[in-house]
Amino acid sequence: MVVLAKPPALEHISLLRSPEPGDYFEGIPSVDLAGPGAARAVVQACERFGFFKVVTHSVPAGVVDRLEAEAVRFFASPRAVKDAYGHASPFGYGNKRIGRNGDMGWLEYLLLAIDHASLSKASPAPSSSLRDAVNEYVGAMRGMATTVLEMVAEGLGVSPRGALAEMVTGAASDQLLRLNHYPPCPLMHDLMPNCSPTGFGEHTDPQLVSILHSNSTAGLQVALHDGGHWVSVPPDPTAFFVIVGDSLQVLTNGRLRSVKHRVVVANRLKSRLSMIYFGGPPVEQRIAPLRELLGRDGEHSEQSMYEEFTWGDYKKAAYRTRLADNRLAPFHRRQPPPVAMPQASSSPPSP
Ligand SMILES: C=C1C[C@]23C[C@H]1CC[C@H]2[C@@]12CCC[C@@](C)(C(=O)O1)[C@H]2[C@@H]3C(=O)O
Ligand SMILES: O=C(O)CCC(=O)C(=O)O
């Protein structure tokens, strides 16, 4: 048996089967947020996939292009310059290491905290032009997150319509932006053409919603709720992708489900560049199913599937986990014992 050694740069990075052209999944729902029936379409997509594509939106191309150009410039700068922006812990520049517990991927990134509507002082800004581009981009993402969450509320019959949206746009909300750069890895493809390095390992996002944009290099895969198969998402730099997070799953008592996703670095020539906005609530926010979804006026048709927690509790627990862990599992309520059927006195004893 021939055992091929992984190049040292790839040590600790797991390999995935290289996707084939036929792996592109064409069934990802597309939603025009301004179109008729958008609220229903958003809820349906979130229930079925926990993921959808926003096709018609009002984010000017210039806002995306400006941030993308800043990101390209930053990632092209010398390593020493990038390292000056901190080894992401959690904010700042990170290279291969994700989180604190040993996860590694074939990428470099800049993870930034957002205070209300602009880059937080806790996040180092590589340049004032990058800071401006981030602030402008985050403004657009907050707008889109608001629309999406208002539609979720409307589609589920929750009032007020802003109940979910205000959790991520209020002054104390906990928002993040990550710029990811996945360089190609031709050496790996020469060694093992059927395998590709993991760019970003499988995980669900802890927040309510995440909004992803990428250039035209493929790599994103999502796990289908129906069967758990991994499918490749066709890239579309004119669109945005909305990802349901764990907190929205709990707030809707499991009606909308967070989606597992990952990135595989399969293009041997071109970098993938992605920008992802994470909409999280204030630290003190109680995360529990919305009252309307548990039945009204004491007519308790449905019980909460989760133990109650705050976003602060969840985040603290999340930072102790590995990327692929199921972070909601510890908060799942155990099913109440089944109610015993009364025995009819005339029934014969069971054998
Ligand atoms: C192993 C990790 C890495 C975490 C924390 C912990 C579990 C979940 C990861 C994420 C996933 C979504 C974005 C992020 C920013 C988040 O909020 O949770 C990530 C964070 C990080 O990259 O630092
Ligand atoms: O780069 C991508 O397409 C996905 C990135 C991602 O999942 C993340 O940054 O949490």
- Overall average pLDDT: 91
Helix share bin: 10-25%
Given the C-alpha coordinates, what overall shape results? globular
**Helix/sheet category:** alpha+beta
Number of helices: 8
- Total number of beta strands: 16
Which cofactors or ions or other ligands sit in this model? Gibberellin A9, 2-oxoglutaric acid
Q: Kindly provide the radius of gyration, computed on alpha-carbon positions and rounded to a whole number of angstroms.
A: 22 Å
Strand content: 15-25%
Distance linking N and C termini: 58 Å
Task: Outline the low-pLDDT stretches.
Answer: 344-351
Elements, N to C (H/E): EEHEHHEEEHHEHEEEEEHEEEEH
Largest sheet composition: 9 strands, mixed
Tell me the layout of helices and strands.
Layout: E1 15-17, E2 30-32, H1 38-48, E3 51-56, H2 61-75, H3 79-83, E4 92-98, E5 103-115, E6 118-119, H4 128-156, H5 165-169, E7 174-182, H6 186-191, E8 195-203, E9 209-214, E10 220-223, E11 230-232, E12 240-244, H7 246-251, E13 261-264, E14 272-280, E15 286-287, E16 309-310, H8 311-318
Parallel strand pairs: 2-3
Antiparallel strand pairs: 1-8, 3-12, 4-5, 5-6, 5-7, 7-14, 8-13, 9-12, 9-14, 10-11, 10-13, 15-16
Helix pairs in contact: 1-4, 2-4
The site of Gibberellin A9 has 16 residues, from strand 5.
Can you give a write-up of this model?
Belongs to the iron/ascorbate-dependent oxidoreductase family. GA2OX subfamily. Residues 326-351 are annotated as: Disordered. The chain is α+β, with helices and mostly antiparallel strands and 351 residues long. Helices cover 24% and strands 25% of the residues. It is built from eight helices and 16 strands. A hairpin with a 6-residue loop joins strand 10 (220-223) and strand 11. Helix 1 packs across helix 4 and helix 2 (61-75) crosses helix 4. Residues 344-351 have low confidence and may be disordered. The structure holds Gibberellin A9 and 2-oxoglutaric acid. Residues 90, 98-99, 101, 103, 111, 176, 203, 205-206, 278, 318-319, 321-323 line the site of Gibberellin A9.
